[in-house]
Amino acid sequence: MFKILKYSFYDLMRSRWSYVYFAFYLALGFVLLFLNNDVNKAVITLMNIIIVLTPLIGTIFGVMYFYNSKEFTELLLAQPIKRSKIFMGQFLGVALSLALSLILGLGIPFLAYGLFQSTAIFDFGLLLVVGMFLNFIFVALAFNIALTNENKIKGFGYAILMWLFLAVIYDGAFLISLVMFDDYPLDKFSLIATMFNPIDLSRILILLKLDISALLGYTGAVFKQFFGTNLGLFTSLGVLSLWVLFPVWRINVKLRKKDF
Amino acid sequence: MIEITQLHKTFGKLTVLDGLDLSIKSGGIFAVLGPNGSGKTTLIKCILGMVIPQKGEIIYDNESIIRKSEYRNKINYMPQIANFPANLTVIELIEMVKNLRPKVAKEQGLISLFGIEPFLTKKLGNLSGGTKQKVNIILAFMFDSDLIILDEPTTGLDPIALIHLKQIIQEAKAAGKTILITTHIMSLVDEIADEIVFLLDGKIYFKGSVPAIKEQTGEAQLEHAIANLLRKQNV
Known about the structure:
The complex is a heterodimer of chains A (260) and B (235). Chain A has 260 residues and is mainly α. Chain A is built from 11 helices and no strands. Chain B has 235 residues and is an alpha/beta fold. Chain B has 8 helices and 10 strands. In chain B, the strands form 2 sheets. In chain B, strands 6-7-8-3-9-10 form a 6-stranded mixed beta sheet, with helices on both faces. Chain A binds chain B through residues 3, 7, 10-12, 14-15, 69-72, 74-83, 256-260, and chain B through 11, 45, 48-52, 67, 69-73, 75, 77, 79, 81-88, 92, 96-97, 99-102, 139.
């Protein structure tokens, strides 16, 4: 598996898009710090971008890589390697190269700005961890979609729809339900509903760590009670891990019956 | 060497292999022929474990191979379309495949035979179709395996490369290897094949030597003999 990982990783590290992605984060980091002139504020702005963008890039890269390497995968399938190892290697190759772009692209400007002298270092660290989780989750989900759809266009469409649903539509539906059922106690419901969307979960996890939950009202207080504690932090990271593990498990199940 | 019994494979409603039985003994060149969509590639992919049949058994070297992976170390395969990761160089690709197989490779002779040296450090994405196909050939022939499977190996090759390909196929045969080849070029079959396996509607319709098929159909040319087989089927 590590051999495949190595080659997928090298392959991606040499593709123009990895550098575009890296350069984008690099520019974003510098611009945000320059405009905000404050690490703490930059972290908040950055969160809003990372939460939406990493899933999108992960989804697109995942689907694209899967379809583009079809023939290469066939070459690998003719080698004495287990299917699961081939695909896990490719998955990790894509996810890790994206994660590296993210960490280096944002890490360099923030380090240059003096992150270590700032109080925001923990928040920034959490932001990167969450960004990496989202990255792994959405690449895995994208692989799932690509694996079940032979047709490229369809696969691409479903992948974008999935991203749109989790990043935008889910929130909308969630908000509408909160307004509609205003008369009922909704704290438990919203807590659980949050768990079912990795993007929401990440957002709230970071928001509450950034201590701006006062904006969120009563439910915010319940959230703060939950996410603000270590138990909440580890539960949410645990749920995010499940969000990685479940799609990865499904990839392996699907692979067993797949024809190439 | 390979024993296939009652192999069934359907893709949705389309039945591609319908209870196919095939026995291939060790040594010689076997041409797998058949009209488009007759299941040639599916059969080969079943042997390689890339397509998983619904029913049936494939025995290679006295071992069942369904859902296994290690046995592929004993098979060299050249796929129909040569498409490799665009950002790797030729030499990196060759090193990678060597790295993935616990086996000695002798690629040097093949590289010079096909004149690939000037391309070794070029990225695969920048190579022409024919050059990619040559790399494909090198990858398939650099290992010493008892079974070599070639799926449409002549696509995009120039005449010189084609002569070299025929030459290394003959060398492999002389070394006692079994070569399974699919092609639509009948002159190639006529020239090199020892035995023909003719697939039709997911079954083996004819299996025998080139002279036998000519004799059976009463045609002097292989192309016409095959056409004759197909016509009889349609009547």
